[in-house]
């Protein structure tokens, strides 16, 4: 990696099925591991309240993911889960926790507002339930989530999921492909 290289940033909210799909592909499709940045969808354009479920299910099938099981509670209340993701990032487990939480929500159909769902995701990445419960209520964790959301907005994120690379923000179904291509460009070599 030369001077021009930048690590991409993956901006996501655990309540977004589109973010789930990108989360499942971003690690294998890019030559570098992105920074996973949990942000609140309401702070960067909001959560898609009526996603095209059939299209999302087709994309999941195309990517050979488990069949989607939609949480009964829609739209999901992700505040607690996003605080947990922010705490997990603080202790070096953002990727593992977030993937586990996404899978609980969209492969198991569990409600992210339910503490047991958050604790199951934490257990999957060896976060002790007591530590996770304490981390979620820390004022500094809440502030970190709000600050991450503000940084995403300032970086130009207006829709989730998004990938930031340098001063550019990529969103949409082909964002991972475009970032992978940009990383191969001479400026990033």
Strand and helix map with partners:
Elements lengths: L8 E4 L4 H13 L5 E4 L14 H10 L16 H12 L3 H13 L8 H10 L4 H9 L1 H17 L6 E4 L2 E4 L3 H10 L5
Parallel strand pairs: 1-2
Antiparallel strand pairs: 1-3, 3-4
Provide keyphrases for this structure:
4-stranded mixed β-sheet, alpha+beta, globular, 8% strand, 189 residues
Q: Compute the CA-based radius of gyration.
A: 16 Å
- The number of helical segments is 8
Question: Could you say what the CATH topology is called?
Answer: Glutaredoxin
Largest sheet: 4 strands, mixed
Give the SSE string: EHEHHHHHHEEH
How many domains, in number, for the residues? Answer: 1
Number of strands: 4
Question: Any idea what the CATH architecture is?
Answer: 3-Layer(aba) Sandwich
Q: Work out the helicity level.
A: 40-55%
Low-confidence stretches: none
Shape: globular
- End-to-end C-alpha gap: 6 Å
Overview of this protein structure:
This protein has 189 residues and is of the alpha+beta class. The chain is built from 8 helices and 4 strands. It has a 4-stranded mixed β-sheet, sandwiched between helices. The longest helix is centred in the last third of the chain and has 17 residues, at 139-155. The protein is globular. The relative contact order is 0.20.
């Amino acid at each position: 990696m030369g001077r021009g290289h930048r690590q991409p940033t993956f901006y996501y909210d655990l309540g977004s099925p589109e973010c789930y799909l990108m989360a499942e592909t971003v690690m294998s499709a890019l030559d570098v591991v992105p920074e996973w940045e949990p942000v609140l969808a309401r702070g960067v354009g909001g959560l898609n309240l009526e996603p095209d479920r059939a299209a999302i299910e087709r994309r999941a099938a195309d990517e050979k993911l488990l069949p989607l099981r939609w949480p009964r509670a829609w739209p999901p209340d992700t505040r607690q889960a996003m605080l947990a993701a922010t705490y997990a990032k603080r202790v070096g487990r953002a990727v593992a926790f977030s993937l586990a939480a996404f899978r609980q929500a969209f492969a198991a159909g569990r409600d992210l507002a339910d503490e047991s769902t958050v604790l199951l995701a934490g257990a999957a990445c060896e976060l002790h339930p007591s530590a996770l419960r304490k981390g979620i209520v820390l004022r500094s964790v809440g502030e970190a989530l709000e600050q991450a959301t503000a940084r995403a907005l300032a970086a130009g994120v207006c829709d989730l999921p998004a990938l930031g690379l340098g001063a550019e923000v990529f969103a949409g179904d082909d964002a991972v492909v475009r970032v992978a291509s940009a990383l191969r460009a001479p400026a990033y070599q």
